[in-house]
Amino acid sequence: AQLNSKHMLPQPLSWFRHNEIFCHSLDDFPGVCPGSLRHAKAGMTLATLNKLCELQNLTSCLLPQEELDIRPKVSSLLGKLVNYTNLTQGVKEHEEAESTDGSKKKVSKSPSMGTLMGVYLPCMQNIFGVILFLRLTWMVGMAGVLQSFLIVLLCCCCTMLTTISMSAIATNGVVPAGGSYFMISRSLGPEFGGAVGLCFYLGTTFAGAMYILGAIEILLTYIVPQAAIFHPSGAHDASSAMLNNMRVYGTVFLILMAVVVFVGVKYVNKFASLFLACVVISILSIYAGAIKSIFDPPEFPICMLGNRTLSRDQFDVCAKTIVKDNITVASKLWELFCHSTNLTTENCDEYFLMNNVSEIAGIPGAASGILKDNLWSNYMEKGEILEKAHHPSVDVAGLKNNLHLYVLSDIATSFMVLVGIFFPSVTGIMAGSNRSGDLKDAQKSIPVGTILAIVTTSLVYFSCVLLFGACIEGVVLRDKECVSHHPWCICLMFLFLQVFGHGKANGEPTWALLLTALIAELGILIASLDMVAPILSMFFLMCYLFVNLACAVQTLLRTPNWRPRFKYYHWALSFLGMSICLALMFISSWYYALVAMLIAGMIYKYIEYQGAEKEWGDGIRGLSLSAARYALLRLEEGPPHTKNWRPQLLVLLKLDEDLHVKYPRLLTFASQLKAGKGLTIIGSVIQGNFLETYGEAQAAEQTIKNMMDIEKVKGFCQVVVANKVREGIAHLIQSCGLGGMKHNTVVLGWPYGWRQSEDPRSWKTFIGTVRCTTAAHLALLVPKNVSFYPSNHERYNEGNIDVWWIVHDGGMLMLLPFLLKQHKVWRKCKMRIFTVAQMDDNSIQMKKDLATFLYQLRIEAEVEVVEMHNSDISAYTYERTLMMEQRSQMLRQMRLTKTEREREAQLVKDRHSIARLESLYSDEEDEGDPVPENIQMTWTKEKCDAEKRNRGSAVGSFRDLISIKPNQSNVRRMHTAVKLNEVIVNRSHDARLVLLNMPGPPKNTDGDENYMEFLEVLTEGLERVLLVRGGGREVITIYS
User: Fold this and answer.
1) Which of 549, 581, 859, 965 has the fewest CB atoms within 10 Å, i.e. the most exposed one?
2) What pLDDT, on a 0 to 100 scale, did the predictor assign at position 4?
3) Distance (Å, rounded) from C-alpha 474 to C-alpha 494?
4) What Rg do the C-alpha atoms of the chain give, in angstroms?
């Protein structure tokens, strides 16, 4: 501020020298202070200094060069945002694309399309289609004007609500190419995006097949009927012949379209406006014809026999007889019904004889009042004859052989069927969002253009429903072929190209084009417009459903990045649109809906199985975080009930010097015990300083995660850096977990080789961890000989899991075997429970009580009570205790000698000079007094005499080891451990796993080494042992 102040008087550079410590302190950072400022002379004034500052980049005075690489200047960031073309901001791909060689970069055109040409007209072009011209009149005839209004209203409300949700998503940042896939994948995740994007792709592909089928239907029915390849061989083969013609011509047209897309789609795209003009002219002709019908209704007679509609394909004159040369002769109609050229009635159809033939106006006009007859629905079954209600008729049965002479319904109709057929005529609302990269202001054009297009097309549909119902006779409306026979229908021939009018001219993938053509061929082979339309309705509805869901989820989560420029949205509208989409799916065709959901689900699971390559910050992750927070807050309300208790594990892993897991079977045991349920935290400690060993901690965490994937352990990993391993383990035990999701059980490995090592730190760390878990009221599991435990690929088809229940521990010994037997490795093992009875115990009653207790616990197990008689202490026990105390005394004397203390000091110095990873059960804490690194001694006579006396006392103390007598308390404990081990080995030597209570460490730390010896004696001779220590609470109950 002082440098840039305009009111400051010129002064020498002494002021800057007064603050030169700033630059000197930053000499190690290149580019921090400009060289001109460092080497400025004392006579330089402030004005000269200001000029130097203008020449130098003063941003480098604030940030080191390496921070400038990750924190760019505001000017460069804004320049990138302004020059945005079609790539997403903030991703590595964008930066890599900008950093490539300039010769390889193509000059991209700036977006220049507005709302009209970029969104409104493309949406109009995609929404209007063959359904409007080929099926809307038929829908009005079947459903009536009122239910047709309801169908159009449902479909248009669905697309309008979807457009509101889509506008909110599309205006929440830049949406490049990708359309619905991009929006949904960024909102709900790549799994949903891939599933719905592929569904949208399938719907668009089937839409191409539908447009081709509509074009062929016009071609073969009205324009060139003689071009048909297959002709009906009988009266009832007309439908199958037409389907075969559709398949052949459809395949030819599809190949032609594929070639056009592959070779010259850019030329066809130039005629998109011409195609839209054809559609607009066709629609305008509907209004012109309706207005003209008020004053001059067109001549369009319909031949009726009674109240039944006759098909005029096989006769010309609508009369039973005709006058020819003043003679009344039988007409062609008489010959068809009576099978005779004379006027005899012997073989005539009874219905033909009893009813009159008449002609009615097919298009009476808007002023005729026909609207009131077309208000209500006239749904029909397949093969039913089209009849005019309230027309004079004698109801008698006719011959079935003459049914082909009437106009019949080709499919069964209902409200649900018509919804599925009509819905494709309102799709195409995403044409604008797909072009967002070409829009000048996409966040303004997409909502306005799409909503205006939907409003326009909805008004056209509503008005057409009203005009068709007011101008056309009901039997004509219900005849698909009859109502479309108008001159404006010829314009539909051009509509088959509109679905291909949006291809990209640059680099269309060949294999994707071939796959698209093959999928479209499936729709062509169906060959029925009425069957293809519901299929693509399902896929479009699925896409629109998830667009609404994406908007609703983002709105409810209120993520900080959810800031749409389009403000007229609400989560309730999105949920309403989602509900309408789901309802329309099952209304139109419930089995097609299930198939579409199955396809989307399979795609979702496949993408989830393969794993998403990128993290997009989607709404599902935010939803998971909100759900996790809610669940954690609920868990905080109190401790879990005994019925809900299960071991939530904290597994303390040991890593070797190369950061590899030393005992991976600990993870295997954890996965078998948990079977994917509950909480599992894998913890490890790295000794050192956090700032220096952070990289090692990250590498160790990744190694543990890889091993967790191999062993199929579902859980979390936490690596702690601490100066002492014992402190790191204490930190893990205290701080792991969050809220109610905290561990209640610690899995600890056994310190192998502790007897052979002169260093006591390994077993002292082990005992310290046992004391920490006891103080924290946590359960403790110590798998001994864990390398012999089975892998996840092994199966025990027989064998026993033996439980030695010595003291009550809250039921842990009962619960753990039950949980292990849920895993496939242990499933076929039998459970046996042993308990020990003293001389004054009633062993028979104990066995009955234990069996009753297990029955109430719903645990199947064999029960055995082992009696231990009081016996004299054996010589082996006495000798074993003596050896234990002699070894302890010897090591204690060795640690106290001056020579060993100097050696220990040297080892500590060497350890500090070589950076390596210590084991989990080692600690750098020195057990003796601190020793200086440099030992300098000046020998005097007194010191020399003292040293001789110390050496003499040390030699004497070693001689005392021979005459030592064991402590009686230790002898009794050793006697108990030896006798119990004999019983356990005798009964469970062949067991697959032995579980027994783990006695607690002594309160006096002087007996820690003896405690380790007792545990060794207790488990001696057993292959797989699991030492269990309860956490001080009941974990199993007999109540439901």
Assistant:
1) 965
2) 42
3) 29
4) 45
What SS3 state is found at 324?
strand
786 with 750: CB under 8 angstroms?
yes
Q: What b-and-e string marks burial along 916-938, b requiring 16 or more CB atoms within 10 Å of the CB?
A: ebbbbbbbeeeeeeeeeeeeeee
Provide the token pair at 156: 């248009």
| Beta strands 993-997 and 327-330, pairing class | unpaired
User: What whole-number percentage of the chain has pLDDT above 90?
Assistant: 9
392 and 487 in contact (C-beta within 8 Å)? no
Among the listed residues 339, 457, 478, the one whose alpha carbon sits nearest the alpha carbon of residue 406:
478
The residue type found at 971 is: V
Instruction: Quick: pLDDT tens for 359-396.
Output: 898 889 888 889 998 999 999 998 888 888 888 888 88
CATH code for residues 92-296+414-588? 1.20.1740.10
Domain-wise residue ranges, the chain: 92-296+414-588, 301-361+380-409, 795-916+968-1039
In terms of pLDDT, which residue wins out, 586 or 965? 586
Q: Tell me how many degrees the CA angle 775-779-780 measures, rounded to the nearest 5.
A: 95
Beta-strand relationship, 779-784 and 1025-1029: antiparallel
Question: What's the whole-number mean pLDDT along residues 640-650?
Answer: 78
Tokens of 690: 């956090």
Helix (H) or strand (E) holding 445: helix 442-471
pLDDT average, residue stretch 902-917: 48
Higher pLDDT, 443 or 717: 717
In this prediction, residue 459 carries a pLDDT of 95
Residue carrying structure tokens 């549909």:
461
CA distances from 772 to 303, 733, 742, 778 (A): 99, 8, 16, 9
**The pair of three-digit structure tokens given for residue 420, joined into one six-digit string:** 């599925």
